[in-house]
Fold:
Amino acid sequence: MKIDISSVVKSIKDRIDLDLSVNKDELSEITPFKDLRIELVTPMVFVGALTNIDGAIKLSGEANVKYTTLCARCGVDVSSVMKFTIDEKLMNEADLKEDEREDFFYYSGNDLDIGKILSEYFYLNLPMREICSEACKGRCSKCGVNLNKEACACMSINANSQFEALKDFFK
Ligand SMILES: [Zn+2]
Ligand SMILES: [Zn+2]
Structure:
């Protein structure tokens, strides 16, 4: 999602208020995270402003979004809400060398790709792993049943939960 920020770049106005609703397809540009199986339940809402402070463009505001991912133990959908605050000075792409571009948030001419910034914040704020509940028993390592829902005859329940405890220990 690109927005026209020419009025703050040219200092015609010193502020643009933003109230955006950003859809999933406008946030899904970051490919390494595709396999996290994140589904946005709602568009991401961002309320904030772009300001020009003595020639420096600043983006500030708050975002929130509802999403689902898979429990790291049992694989069922887990719903989460994420909120984050942005307070970033934006660089002008023309002032950055090619190899500096991934280290800064920047605008290009009169355009700001705000979808890219929101995507990066979203992924930076994701927990390393999510679980459906602290008490989640996971799945049987032999037959794969969801041990929160049923017991199985593999007699591996104890071994499995010890294995889970060890996995947590080595994180
Ligand atoms: Zn679970
Ligand atoms: Zn089993």
